[in-house]
Amino acid sequence: MYNKGLFADWVPKPLMLVLILVFLIPILVVNGVYTGNISYMVGSLGTHNEWIVFANYAGVVGMGVSLPLIFRYKLRFYTKFLMVRTLLFLAIASFMIGTTDNVIVIVSSTFFIGFLKMFALIELIMPTMFMISPDGNRPKFYSIFYPSAIVFPQLAGYLMVRFGFSTYWQNANFIMAIIMLSLAGLALIFMHNQRYDKKVSLKGIDWTGLFLFTNVFLALAYFISFAKQQNYFRSDNIMLAVGIMVLGSVLYAINQRLKENPFIHFGFLKNYSVIHGIMMLLMLGFFLAGGSLQSKITMGILGFDSVMDNSFNLWMIPGLLIAIVFSMKWLVNNKSLKIYILTGFTAFILYYVLMYFLVSRGLSYEQLIIPNIIRGFGMAVLFIGVWLYALGDLKPDAMLGAAAVMIIVRTMIGPGLWSLGFNYIDSIWSLEALTNMAGKMDASAYSQQTAMGLYKTINLDSLMISTKRLYGLLVMLGGAVLVYVSFLNLDGLSKRSVILLRKRLKGQTTKGYVREVALQEEEELQEEIKAASAVAV
Question: What is the reported pTM?
Answer without folding.
Answer: 0.83
